[in-house]
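Here is a tokenized protein:
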Amino acid sequence: KIVDRIDGDADGYIATDELKAWIKRVQKRYVYENVAKVWVDYDLNKDNKISWDEYKQATYGYYLEEFEDATDQFSFKKMLPRDERRFKAADLNGDLAAEKEEFTAFLHPEEFEHMKDIVETLEDIDKNGDGHVDEDEYIGVKSERVLL
């Protein structure tokens, strides 16, 4: 059944371009389903927009003040400016309030052309600073995205 869905020209074979198109379609569906699922957690005032302040409060809340461990506090203080840069890049109209499409670009910058320059760098993923991304660091990045 899935082969029939992927095989656009119905020739009984899946060509590379058909497989690429299928993967892109499935990825795009996942992205929009993910945003729909988390939208209510971030739109705190229910105005159908997510402001930078709403996102910051929902994501970081009391963490910056409450963490006594310097390492945890450093990690959150490092993540906050990175998130703010990404939020502002996704906010095409500059009102610091993301509509669904803008918030989608914020959460999934790899899917949007105007966000290509803001996608995580090795520096963001390489938590132990050894110049390599090990399995735990990679899984950590994937977990962050799923949680968002």
Summary: Residues 79 and 124 are 9 Å apart (CA to CA). Helices lie at 2-6, 16-42, 52-59, 63-66, 70-90, 100-107, 122-125, 135-147.
